[in-house]
Amino acid sequence: MFSPTIIIEAMINGLLTGAIYALVALGLTLVYGVLHIINFAHGATLAAAMFAVWGLNAAFGIDTYWTIPIVTPAFFVLGYVVQRFVIGPAAHGDDGSILLITLGISILIENALLAGFGSDTRSIPSDFSFAIVEAGPFLLSSARLVGAAGSLVVAILFWLLMSRTDTGKAIRAVAREKLGANLVGINVGHIYAITFGLGCAALAVAASLLMPTFYVNPRIGGAFVNIAFTVVVLGGMGSIPGAMAGGLIIGMVESLSGLLLGESLGQIGIFIIFILVLLLRPTGLFGAKA
Predict the structure, then answer these.
(1) Whose CA is closest to 198, among 35, 55, 51?
(2) Across 11-20, average pLDDT
(3) Would you give the distance in Å from CA 181 to the centre of its chain?
(4) How many CB atoms lie under 10 A from the CB of residue 95?
(5) Distance between CA atoms of 129 and 98, rounded to whole angstroms?
(6) pTM of the entire structure?
(7) Which residues are CB-neighbours of 285 under 8 A, at least 6 positions away?
(8) Per-residue DSSP letter, 238
């Protein structure tokens, strides 16, 4: 039987990891909330962002956290361009076509990463990755503390953007009623592209926060996107507060499952939560009925 100190420490570390899971899920739920489609390229885009962070560190020695002001605007522009000039025109307004296009983009990105970097696993060695903060009787990962703080800052910035800016009001208007927003002069195509770009930008920040403690290979995005889908379903499709709350819950469940069942079985708890939510509350914690 584990002592209360070990269990509480596992819960705290799970919450810190869950904050980054929430950031990964934030982009997914934002795109769904506005475009009403699931972006199947989400995981591959995260893998590309992690390789971008790794590449900047390997080529120029840039610290992972200092890559944030470089990769974030770059991936925002990339997401904007892909949505505005590839996904939008190719889909012709058909949501089914958008799903297939994002799936194709995912396959394209993954194979491009395999061709460019091979299937080897890469990481960024750093003393900070193993640094520990003593908080009373608890030992907490410094890198995870920074990651959780960064995720909180991004969530606050998203909230300010959505609630205090004209762009945020336009995004909310398009999400609620596309036709009405178009009638009052909002450029719906532009807002779609901005939303998609913001989702990619959130992934870029998440990649910079993840790399001190995680490895990267061309297929790493699949593992994170599975967790992100669970987070989004738990919190409620399209709900930004739900994504943040769901990420924290899933992180804690994963940590406790790993402690009680072993590291190799740690994600069983996540998928049990996923199934229970689908059975008992399909709209999630913060989701609204259609």
Answers:
(1) 35
(2) 90
(3) 27
(4) 11
(5) 39
(6) 0.91
(7) 234, 235, 236, 239, 242, 245, 246
(8) T
How far apart CA 181 and CA 248 sit, in angstroms, is 34
* Confidence grade of residue 290 (pLDDT, cut at 50, 70, 90): very low
Instruction: Give the helix/strand (H/E) hosting 82.
Output: helix 68-82
Contact criterion met (CB below 8 Å) for 15 and 248: yes
Instruction: Domain ranges for the chain, please list them.
Output: 24-220
pLDDT tens for each residue of 149-166 = 999 999 999 989 988 999
Q: How many CA atoms within 13 Å lie on the side-chain side of 285?
A: 18
Angstrom distances, CA of residue 61 to CA of 89, 121, 143: 39, 19, 18
pLDDT digits (tens, 9 = 90+) for 205-214: 999 999 998 8
Of 86, 46, 71, nearest to 220 by C-alpha is 46
